């Protein structure tokens, strides 16, 4: 990384420094490599450490850097495509992305009011809740809660499956017995709740992308999935490649 003095630039120094650092990350550093300490970087670029920290924080927010306790600041893995708008509709746990999601557990609970409305469920009506996680480069990328009414899995009561991942897989297999008629998805920016933040290894309130998917069968909403993605490792793209909307994640 060469020395660059930042003088008389028409934009904030930290923003210009962010651009310079980003170029260096592409040309001089490998994924996982630790950056020099703040004192060395500030001296090399002729800026105050406060300016350097602003640039590093912005690069971390954009998913270019990762700060790890006991390690330092490292170069983040490159972003990879995660399909959201796949035209080949499939139930969760099937299709091309089946191996990406790992079932964690399943329990019964009353869904949030917004999900209950999508399912046309009563205010105190419990649903099966399947929890899944998605990893990328050994780090948590997304956490999902899949809400399934009892009517969508009528044969489940006759199945004696233990808790944890085994129970989650059993619920998903029962759901797949229905003929999927279609699905739609919505994406919005949100803030990580305490439970999501813990699962995604982020601070509460960190920016996240929330993908809500409705699955249709037998002329009604058969299930609703709410997947929470780390916003620092995901970005949206539009186009024909990958079938419309995609999340690109690192």
Description:
The protein is of the alpha+beta class. The chain has two domains: 13-75, Orthogonal Bundle (Arc Repressor Mutant, subunit A); 80-249, Chorismate lyase-like (Chorismate lyase, 3-Layer(aba) Sandwich). The protein contains six helices and eleven strands. It has helices at residues 13-28, 38-45, 49-61, 113-119, 164-175, 194-200, and strands at residues 65-68, 72-75, 80-83, 101-109, 127-136, 139-148, 182-191, 207-217, 220-230, 234-237, 246-249. The strands form three sheets. The protein has a six-stranded antiparallel β-sheet. Strand 5 (127-136) and strand 6 (139-148) form a beta hairpin. Helix 1 (13-28) crosses helix 3 and helix 2 packs across helix 3. The protein is elongated and about 70 Å long. 30% of the residues are buried. The model is unreliable at 241-245 (pLDDT under 50).
Fold blueprint:
Blueprint: H1 13-28, H2 38-45, H3 49-61, E1 65-68, E2 72-75, E3 80-83, E4 101-109, H4 113-119, E5 127-136, E6 139-148, H5 164-175, E7 182-191, H6 194-200, E8 207-217, E9 220-230, E10 234-237, E11 246-249
Antiparallel strand pairs: 1-2, 3-11, 4-5, 5-6, 6-9, 7-8, 8-9, 10-11
